[in-house]
Write a structure and sequence with these properties.
The protein is an alpha/beta fold and about 350 residues long. It has two domains: about 210 residues, Isopropylmalate Dehydrogenase; about 120 residues, 3-Layer(aba) Sandwich (Isopropylmalate Dehydrogenase). The chain has 13 helices and twelve strands. The chain has a twelve-stranded mixed sheet, sandwiched between helices. Strand 8, helix 10 and strand 9 form a beta-alpha-beta unit. Helix 5 crosses helix 7 and helix 9 runs parallel beside helix 10. The radius of gyration is 20 Å and the shape is elongated. It starts with 8 loop residues before the first strand and ends in a 10-residue tail after the last helix.
């Protein structure tokens, strides 16, 4: 069975004090206009009722016991699968209910998709600092999802962050690291494994027959053959050669300062970048309102809007739902190509 075949998407609560709840309400309100696929949200139904009332919008909220009731409910009410946690956080003001509810929502969404009850996981933004204060041990969403996948399947997962938009797709090889630690963590093996996963998932899930990978250099001018740093010559170039030896269409290392203009982008499907900001600055410049965060390397589809919790505007109704809409639409598209996996016994 294919998860995308008639199964609703599991949308997580995210940080309840952020813009996630109001974006969820707005996307459901405009579901027909925006051609949004059916979804249910995992959270506190009263939170959505209260937030809708505070925003002055008339949206029916329906508590559903399980995802299978969501599809029939979606046309007439926002379906909410409840958590056993009362969410008391107010817009812009995280409290002691924030982290437990956000974490529980993610856990249930993954359980639903792994059990074949949902087509994909779509995550509203979390506030990492709020989670860290509660004892959350993972660096972020991506790493937590990988741990949940390993628990469900009994197999290790190597998650890869892809930031996707029609204009540009990028992958940071190292992610949430201080810049001074990037060189110590960067390795040929890490680049090769990342490139393999990217090439495989772009082919299997995005339907790109032979994905073209452009690999950015770490240093200015891709190191100028070692004169501006040896990492591109000694780490990046051998990794590109290894990928090519496996039949993957990869080129590089390429100077990052000329990699993202329109003519350059026409020559590749995804850019592999060596560190977080090298990847995220160009895509957020080109597609700030509609970029999507996709986690590759998992046994299920996960997408997320490419923005944060925006505590400063939470509760005002000013948040733009474009990125969440794009995340939902892309999740349905990818789920339709992703076979359901059976969890390990």
């Amino acid at each position: 069975m294919m998860p995308g075949s008639g199964l609703p998407l599991a949308l997580t609560l995210g940080e309840p004090a952020g813009i996630g709840p109001e974006l969820t309400l707005e996307v459901w309100r405009r579901r027909a206009e925006l051609h949004v696929p059916p979804f249910y949200v995992i959270g506190d139904p009263d939170l959505y009722r209260d937030r809708a009332q505070a925003l002055g919008i008339d949206i029916p909220v329906k508590t559903v016991a399980a995802p299978d009731a969501a599809a029939s409910t979606f046309d007439r009410a926002l379906p909410v699968v409840p958590l056993d946690i009362e969410v008391t956080a107010k817009p812009g003001l995280p409290d002691e209910s924030s982290a437990p509810s956000a974490i529980a929502s993610i856990r249930l969404a993954v359980a639903d998709v792994m059990a074949g009850r949902a087509g994909a996981v779509v995550t509203n933004p979390i506030a990492k600092n709020v989670l860290y204060r509660s004892g959350f041990a993972e660096p972020g969403h991506t790493e937590f999802l990988a741990r949940l996948a390993e628990e469900a399947t009994g197999r290790p997962a190597h998650p890869v962050m892809l930031l996707w938009s029609p204009e540009l797709a990028v992958v940071p090889v190292t992610i949430h690291l201080p810049l001074k630690e990037v060189v110590d963590r960067l390795s040929k093996d890490l680049i090769v494994e990342t490139g393999r996963i990217v090439a495989r998932d772009l082919a299997d899930r995005f339907g790109i027959a032979r994905p073209r990978l452009a690999v950015a250099g770490l240093n200015p001018h891709a190191g100028e053959n070692g004169t501006l740093g040896a990492e591109d010559r000694d780490i990046v170039a051998p990794a590109v050669a290894a990928l090519r030896g496996e039949g993957i269409d990869a080129v590089g290392p390429l100077p990052a300062d000329t990699l993202f203009h329109a003519r350059a982008r026409a020559g590749y499907d995804v850019a592999l970048c060596m560190y977080h900001d090298q990847a995220l600055i160009p895509i957020k410049t080109l597609a700030f309102d509609h970029g999507v965060n996709v986690t590759l390397g998992l046994p299920f589809v996960r997408t997320s809007p490419d923005h944060g919790t925006a505590f400063d505007i939470a509760g005002t109704g000013k948040a733009d739902p474009s990125s969440l809409v794009a995340a939902l639409i892309l999740a349905a598209r990818l789920a339709a190509r992703t076979p359901q996996l059976v969890p390990a016994q």
